[in-house]
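task queued by scheduler; priority normal; single chain, no ligands, no partner chains; default sampling; output format set to C-alpha cells
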Amino acid sequence: MRNIEILALVDDDDTFIFVTKKIIEKTNHVKEVKVFNNGLDALDFLKENLKHSSRLPEVIFLDLSMPIMDGWQFLNEFVKMETEYTKKITIYVCSSSISPHDISRAKSISAVSDFIIKPITKDKFSEIILQL
C-alpha cells in the first residue's frame, strides 16, 4: 500500500473534515492533511505552488457544495491549469449528493478519478489508497 505525502480536503463542513481527518490518521498512509474551506482557497494554494511539486497535494477530496467557489467552479479552473502542474494530482469528488446527474457530470471530467458519496469510511479510504 502506497503512502501519500500531502492530501487536501476541500470542504466547508467542519464535522466532515474532523471525522475524515481522524479516519485518515488511523490508516497511517498520509503524512500531511491540508484543509481548505472553499475552492478558491484551494485553487489559490495550487497556483502559488505550481512549480513546487513537493508542496502540492497528491490527492484532493473535493466537495461540490461550498461558499465562495464551489467544487464545479474549482474543477473548471483546475482543468484549465492541469498541464502546468509539476505533479499528478488525483481528485475525488466527495459529496452528500446522490443525484445521478452530479455523479455522471463529475465522472465526465477527466481530472476526477471517482465520485464518493459521504461519509468516507476507513475501508473506503483504504480502497482509494490501494488504487493509487
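post-processing summary
- The CA atoms of residues 26 and 122 lie 8 Å apart.
- The mean pLDDT is 92.
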